[in-house]
User: Which sequence fits this backbone?
């Protein structure tokens, strides 16, 4: 059967892959164009194999996911019900400095006074920056929800927040909603052959049920394999080898203990040759060890993970995932764009992958339908933006490693100056004298604001020498007021916000 014979003036998008990337892309594009109403110029088909499993991890999001889900038309309560979701208000990094129980937070809410007064020079102990300028760390340490039951769903008026979601359930929910509400066509079959007329143009994909699908745009969401962009069009990978060392992960689903709390943040605990993520859902925890096989063995990595979760979970089966850390040089090539793992992957330390999927899908939605003649321009612009974003992500992830004082070979190698990208070295050279400022991140496509860099850098104890510009820092009164105001806001939050688990249970019961 040749679907191209089904002539219409609509442009056809074929998405290969039904993991989170495939379904999020389908949902975002279909919702934006109101495909279900049938009047737009797009036709979207998603084909996924029932024989090739999804990666099944990826449970921490960015705050951007709130608007994404809202725009798709999903009720937040429904998302919580179906995906055993919980709130995420930031990341807590434990043992990243010297491994003796030290920790710092990267909260999602910016420091108080941000954009008005540079607070760092006025905070006595720089490592205490997040605590002195932001309430969210205090709220997280007490396992509180980001809002009260009186507030509307999706309301982030009190605190910026994201989600922890069951990855499998999330893709299933997006699939059901995309099919029933958004007009996305779904084919369960395996792509067996990809016909390309050049290394810039995919003609069609042939499925194991005999169907041949043609499209104006093919979206490669086939996961690490990158069937279309990588295998067929041969696009090369920009590797992060020598900068980010991790290439493996072991993942576990850990049942909750009795009387459990749900942590409203992702905890990343540094280990001898990697780090362990701990993500609280309402139904269980997702726990995994990300590590480098250059510095440890799989057996030792599993031992470390099992020590972390404790003996009582000794019967849980861990799943090993290998990855090549890096990203495709051209993520949109000809009539093929890769979204998700097929476009690239680096260790999930700041949960950047789903956010990049949201950005890519939104870009597709904004550009399509598109005459073929304009595709080279649009793809070139996209590639330029994505290259910049990937480089910024790599720099930001590396930042978490370079001020460690740990003695294990993995950590010593991680702080070796030869492993630090030049772009990050340049930033650090400036920040030595004044710390990261908003103007350093002025690109419209910037991902992490100066606040994120401040939380991580200062949290690790990096203290700029503010003396060269001391004449700028004559706002002690204002800064003291901000610190006092933060204490007041913190007290208000601590006395009004509910416990995270209680909130979810009561909200879902109402
Ligand atoms: C250890 C780890 C932890 C992570 N943690 C986070 C996190 O906390 N936050 C975050 O944002 N991201 C995280 N990620 C990334 C996140 O998991 C992925 O970005 C997300 O799941 C999207 O995956 P995907 O859809 O691209 O690929 P997959 O889930 O692998 O899906 C691939 C799809 O392609 C289909 N397919 C493949 N070949 C064919 C074929 N020939 N024919 C038809 N269909 C085919 C498969 O059936 C499947 O449906 C993590 C990743 C890893 C490895």
Assistant:
């Amino acid at each position: 059967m040749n679907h191209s014979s089904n002539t219409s003036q609509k442009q056809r998008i074929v998405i290969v892959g039904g993991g989170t990337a495939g379904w999020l892309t389908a949902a975002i594009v279909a919702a934006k164009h109101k495909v279900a109403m049938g009047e737009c110029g797009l036709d979207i088909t998603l084909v996924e194999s029932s024989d090739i499993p999804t990666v099944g991890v990826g449970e921490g999001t960015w705050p951007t996911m709130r608007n994404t889900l809202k725009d798709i038309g999903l009720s937040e309560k429904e998302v919580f019900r179906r995906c055993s979701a919980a709130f995420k208000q930031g990341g807590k990094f434990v043992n990243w400095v010297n491994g003796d129980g030290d920790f710092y937070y990267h909260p999602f809410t910016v420091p108080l006074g941000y954009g008005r007064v540079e607070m760092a020079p006025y905070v006595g102990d720089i490592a205490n920056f997040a605590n002195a300028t932001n309430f969210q760390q205090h709220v997280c340490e007490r396992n509180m929800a980001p809002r009260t039951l009186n507030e509307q769903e999706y309301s982030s008026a009190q605190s910026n927040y994201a989600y922890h979601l069951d990855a499998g359930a999330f893709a299933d929910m997006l699939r059901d909603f995309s099919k029933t509400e958004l007009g996305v066509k779904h084919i369960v079959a395996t792509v067996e052959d990809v016909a390309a007329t050049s290394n810039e143009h995919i003609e069609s994909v042939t499925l194991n049920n005999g169907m041949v699908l043609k499209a104006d745009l093919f979206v490669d969401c086939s996961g690490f394999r990158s069937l279309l962009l990588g295998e067929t069009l041969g696009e090369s990978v920009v590797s992060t080898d020598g900068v980010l060392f991790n290439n493996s992960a072991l993942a576990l689903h850990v049942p909750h203990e009795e009387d459990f709390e749900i942590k409203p943040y992702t905890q990343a605990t540094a280990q001898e040759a990697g780090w362990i993520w701990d993500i609280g859902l309402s139904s269980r925890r997702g726990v995994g060890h990300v590590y480098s096989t250059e510095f440890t063995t799989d057996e030792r990595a599993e031992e470390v993970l099992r020590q972390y979760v404790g003996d009582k979970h000794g019967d849980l089966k861990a799943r090993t995932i290998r990855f090549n850390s890096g990203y495709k040089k051209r993520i949109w090539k000809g009539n093929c764009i890769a979204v998700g793992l097929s476009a690239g992957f680096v260790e999930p330390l700041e949960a950047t992958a789903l956010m990049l999927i949201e950005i890519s899908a939104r870009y597709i939605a904004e550009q399509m339908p598109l005459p073929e003649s304009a595709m080279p321009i649009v793809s070139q612009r996209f590639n330029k933006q994505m290259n910049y974003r990937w480089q910024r992500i790599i720099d930001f992830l590396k930042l978490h490693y370079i001020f460690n004082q740990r003695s294990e070979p993995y950590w010593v190698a991680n702080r070796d100056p030869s492993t630090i990208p030049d772009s990050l070295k340049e930033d650090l050279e400036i920040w030595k004298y004044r710390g990261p400022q908003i103007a350093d991140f002025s690109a419209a496509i910037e991902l992490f604001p100066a606040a994120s860099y401040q939380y991580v850098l200062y949290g690790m104890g990096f203290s700029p020498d503010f003396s060269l510009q001391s004449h700028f820092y004559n706002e002690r009164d204002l800064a003291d007021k901000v610190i006092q105001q933060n204490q007041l806001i913190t007290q208000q939050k601590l006395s009004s916000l509910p416990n995270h688990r209680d909130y979810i249970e009561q909200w879902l019961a109402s």
Notes: Residues 16-22, 47-49, 52, 54-55, 57-60, 167, 190-191, 221-223, 225, 227, 249, 251, 288, 321, 323, 340-342, 348, 351, 353-354 surround flavin-adenine dinucleotide (CB under 6 Å). The first helix runs from residue 20 to 33.
